[in-house]
Amino acid sequence: MIQKKKDEEEAALKASMSAAEAEAAAKIEEAAKKVIEDAKNAAAAKGAEGPKAVVWTETQIKEMEKGMVDFPASMDTKERWIAIAAVVVGRNAKQCYMRFRETLAKVKAEKAK
């Protein structure tokens, strides 16, 4: 009964929206779903790795990868990591740099095998 009323209210709201408002609402809803999914993944990973593990969401990883492309290694090192961190939500330059070093170490270890 409650779900039916909720669905009716949602349908009425959507009917009263313009196409642009409906598109914006859909984008917001999709972003909210992504945040929830990232939070679930982070919680699952945290449980698997222990309480001291630093969990990075898929969104943060993609933001860092994009930042590393957008801000080349030819930049001043400190400025580069500050710039990269500026595009990674919830992380600072030190955390981004440490994530990079840990990932690089894992790649080198895999190549050595």
Q: TL;DR?
A:
By secondary structure, this protein is mostly helical. 79% of the residues lie in helices and 0% in strands.
How does this structure look, described?
It contains five helices and no strands. The protein is elongated, with a radius of gyration of 20 Å. The mean pLDDT is 80. Helices cover 79% and strands 0% of the residues. It has two domains: 1-54; 56-113, Orthogonal Bundle (Arc Repressor Mutant, subunit A). The protein has helices spanning 2-15, 19-49, 58-70, 77-87, 93-112. Helix 3 crosses helix 4. It is mainly α and 113 residues long.
Q: Please write the string of helix (H) and strand (E) elements.
A: HHHHH
Low confidence ranges: none
Task: Characterize the biggest β-sheet.
Answer: none
Strand content: under 5%
Radius of gyration: 20 Å
Structural class: mainly alpha
Helix content, binned percent: over 70%
Shape: elongated
Q: Under CATH, the topology of the largest domain is which?
A: Arc Repressor Mutant, subunit A
Estimate nothing, just give the exact number of structural domains.
2
| SS element count, helices | 5
Please give the CATH architecture of the largest domain. Answer: Orthogonal Bundle
Mean pLDDT: 80
Tell me the name of the CATH homologous superfamily of the largest domain.
Homeodomain-like
N/C terminus separation = 60 Å
Q: How many β-strands, per DSSP?
A: 0
The CATH class of the largest domain is identified as: Mainly Alpha
